């Protein structure tokens, strides 16, 4: 039986994961569209997605462990003796590492490339887009692994 606080924390934990990992996935999807544009003009949706600004939805990724620890703090410390929170933490650390070291820096460079009104080297865009796409794919796998462990909670 869960309390209303625990239910709210579970919802917040899942929502943060869906938004954070979803933002990584969206970046990967738009990067793929940019890479597949060949030498032609970029689709308008790609230019809009990579318009100057910040991907604030991606920062929700950092709320996932906050809500997870808060949920443990409601009296579920015993769960740390099971593998599922450790697999989730490991998957999150790996995904956060991919986001901060690979995806987000490449995304910033793509934004800078497209924001400049000067012509840019297509190969540079493709290389950056490929980095975003691969990081997003790996993060998606990590998300599915963590989700499976969180739902099944193997002992």
Descriptive keywords:
5 helices; elongated; mainly alpha; 155 residues
Would you mind describing this structure in some detail?
The protein is mostly helical and 155 residues long. Helix content is 72%, strand content 0%. The chain is built from five helices and no strands.
H/E series: HHHHH
Number of helices: 5
Average pLDDT confidence is 91
The total count of strands amounts to 0
- Largest sheet properties: none
Distance between the termini: 19 Å
**What fraction, in percent, of the residue positions are helical?**
over 70%
Provide a brief overview of the structure.
The protein has 155 residues and is an all-alpha fold. It contains five helices and no strands. The radius of gyration is 18 Å and the shape is elongated.
């Amino acid at each position: 039986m869960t309390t209303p606080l625990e239910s709210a924390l579970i919802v917040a934990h899942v929502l943060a994961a869906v938004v954070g990992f979803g933002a990584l996935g969206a970046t990967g999807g738009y990067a793929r569209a940019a890479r597949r544009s060949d030498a032609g003009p970029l689709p308008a949706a790609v230019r809009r997605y990579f318009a100057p600004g910040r991907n604030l939805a991606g920062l929700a990724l950092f709320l996932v462990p906050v809500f997870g620890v808060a949920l443990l703090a409601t009296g579920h410390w015993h769960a740390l003796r099971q593998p599922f929170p450790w697999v989730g933490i490991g998957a999150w650390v790996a995904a956060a590492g991919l986001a901060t070291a690979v995806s987000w820096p490449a995304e910033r460079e793509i934004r800078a490339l497209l924001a400049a009104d000067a012509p840019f080297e297509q190969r540079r865009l493709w290389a950056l887009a490929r980095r975003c796409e691969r990081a997003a794919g790996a993060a998606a796998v990590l998300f599915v692994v963590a989700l499976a462990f969180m739902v099944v909670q193997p002992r």
